[in-house]
Amino acid sequence: MKNIYKKAVLIAALGFTFASCESYLDDAPKGSKIPTTLADYEAFIRDEYTNQSVSVDQALNLLNDKFITIATLSAERLTKANYMWDETADRIQLNQADEGTYYRSYAGISTFNLIISNVLTTTEATEDQKRIVWAEAKILRAMSYYNLANFYADTYNASTAGTKLSVPLITSADINAPSKQVTIQEMYDFILTDVKDALPYLPKVSQTALHPNLGAGYAFYSRVYLQMSNYTEALKYADLALSQNNKLYDWNAYYTKNKAVIDLPNSYIETPSPMGYDYPENYTFRHGSTTFLSVEYSIPVERAQRFEAGDVRFKSRWKLRTVGEDTYYRRTLSGMFNYGGITTVEVYLIKAECLARAGQISQALEVLNTVRKTRIAPDSYQDIATTDKGAALNAIFKTKNNELILTLIPFADARRLNAEGVYKVSFTKTAGGTTYNLSSTSHLWTMPFPQGATKNPGNGTITQNVPK
Is-contact 313 373, C-beta < 8 A? Predict the structure, then answer.
């Protein structure tokens, strides 16, 4: 049977398709080209709107980090269930259309599998050049699996990781390859192996912002080990990542430069986002959920209140606005935003947490304050100083949640902290005279697979990891 190479079909192809084909590369449709050269395969990494897009909207909804209009809450039942923390809602039944996170992630994995399986036998390149693209695809595949595992499965817990299920693991570019829903431990072992395999071949300097470099490999290793609560290894790789790139963007300078526009009363003129491809903090760039809009999400008033006083990064990005029944902080930047990749500020704050966990409180706060000095206006800034471990960690968590808002990381961190049980994350809000709560033990912290996946699992089976 004819096999398909077109990118539009790769989303369905992953092993979750109904087609019966032997390999992506056996036969190309008329007018299409079978990749043979290194440049052909490397071009897939540049396909940023498919392979480099990370959609985690429902996680943002659960955290209330993304503003949702009253009209949207009335129309989108799954969004409302997460946003209003409705534990009675059957999100499995409601999740019949919200498939972007699942299929977009597996579309990228499909492409990375294709690269990993074939790039080492390509033409018109040296062995070193081939290995670089192979390693870049390994990192991107591992990052995609990390996102899926921390969205559709429970967080890593050493005592249960060997028995609880994660997500389907697919490593072959063959459409007929069987898939297996592996355990959480098996998934993390796979992710760590991918990074270990890639590190010797990653270049120090990226070809583009979309291509992971050595710093990205170290930084992602640090992220994964942190999620596993392995603070020794997380700190080790945080230091290695920062040895490759330790730049922090000066948001005070950005605010000063754009102050006249930012502070203009009753005006929502957009200023250019500095968080694009050339953001100094980038290790590797991946889009978030708003790729095509080139704007970021607005945020709720309650969420805005959790930013530190004098935070010019916040002030440069959102401004209070009321439209009809809705009052919120409207986004005021336009451009690109590295919400799916990894940046230096995340690694600084991983390092700070690991130092605090080890009892090195003063060193941890030195790292934390290094970040804050580039974000907090000089007339508001004061060093955070404490000898209390809990107070230091809570300050680090607060800064990290604000720095990485609208990414998957605050959601993943909350799940990790809830599993630990010491610095638990829960929320309370009042809307329309009713009080709503999200407890640290709620089943809502794990998202259900979309019905399109569970009803049509391809060459394997998929078991829901959450009751509803």
Answer: no
